[in-house]
Amino acid sequence: MKICVIGAGYVGLVTATCLADIGNDCICVDKDERKIASLEKGEIPIYEPGLSELVERSRREGRLSFTTSLPDAVQASNVVFIAVGTPSLPNGGPDLSAIFSVAEEIAPAINSYKIIVMKSTVPPGTTERVSAAIAHLTKERFDAVSNPEFLKEGTAVDDFMMPDRVIIGAENGEAADVMKELYTPFVRTGRPIIVMDSKSAEMTKYVSNGLLATRISFINEMANLCERFGADVNQVRQGVGADSRIGYKFLFPGVGYGGSCFPKDVRALINAANELGCPVPILEAADSVNRNQPQILVTKILRHHNGDLSEKRLGIWGLSFKPKTDDMREAPSIPIIEELLKAGAKVHAYDPVAIDQAKHIFGERITYAATNYDAIDGADGLVLITEWNEFRRPDFDRIKKLLRTPVIFDGRNIYDPRQVREQGFTYYGIGV
Ligand SMILES: NC(=O)c1ccc[n+]([C@@H]2O[C@H](COP(=O)([O-])OP(=O)(O)OC[C@H]3O[C@@H](n4cnc5c(N)ncnc54)[C@H](O)[C@@H]3O)[C@@H](O)[C@H]2O)c1
After folding, report:
1. Rounded to the nearest whole angstrom, what is the distance from the C-alpha of residue 153 to the centroid of ligand 1?
2. Residue 196: which pLDDT band, with cuts at 50, 70 and 90?
């Protein structure tokens, strides 16, 4: 099929690349000229494991190209994906201005029947509104469908290639059939393609993210309670997750969820619910617990140092919102480091891939280390924020020699408290 994907970000670039990999002709459009120029040179603007090899192969074989010209790309395609950002507005609602501005550009470029696919995460009813906005501007035939994306940064290529499910929200059977044909090569292991109406498809995405975010906030709340009781949340988590009705995923206590999806989507759903006069107290609680969660670690650091960080230096391990990505959007490292700086601490930080992104946020207010061990050299504590694999089994003897004060603040509970304490460290985790 001939496909155009508008938005060359985490979702758009992965979508275009994976669809091209299985043989479709894909044009990926972005208004960011620098991004398109670097993609045309084979440079990938984001860190996503496995992506650059696939981009390179499809580009070389002529199935994937990049442009800033939306009309040309739309005209050359049968299926047009919208994958632009929908960030939070100050009131928590999603900013849909990029979606509607793209719709206005698509409409006059429609030269034959097109299927317009809403890949961005948008509130229920948005695909219908976009369809109406386009219909207002063109006499050509088209169908608009919703196809929310469930990929996870860090494993985005695998998630797109082997999705748990594909959700298609289509009012028209012909458009649904084309979408099913497009996705059939990705579900050969029998994973379902579920067709429903577009509002339900849009809502499926929000409910999924809302539920996952709620699980994280729930275990974080329980972790804080475990600590007060003197119970060990790591053991509790294992006991709870062993129940086949519950399972282990998204049940890890930590400094809270971040990234470009959970915080924004939870707030968007709260906002939409309130506008409808139908409050959602569970989601509001999940959001509020999460906003407070980074502070839990900061409080432990402050208490350990008797509330005074003015002469202290802290070594941070991990800046991205989760491992295997350079994405810093709403990363818990941001409020944690801001609070440490406010308390007078000097911060030396290391991240395997997110340092360039972090520089846009912290500038020269913190020091960026070349290795994780450099970050803690002479520091008054190791603060682990992102659980990159390379931090899981470090050389504790070396850490002890490097630290001025042998204390570990483990924001993701990746170390065994007993083992670390036996090695002579003071250890703080979440809920232990
Ligand atoms: N990042 C994820 O893990 C993820 C997962 C599932 C769904 N989503 C959803 O997918 C959507 C995109 O997210 P993302 O993380 O890829 O965003 P992103 O910010 O990484 O990328 C968006 C891209 O769209 C481009 N863009 C904006 N306006 C444009 C316009 N008028 N014309 C052309 N290009 C334009 C931007 O320049 C940018 O490159 C959001 O709605 C998000 O909620 C994201």
Report:
1. 13
2. very high
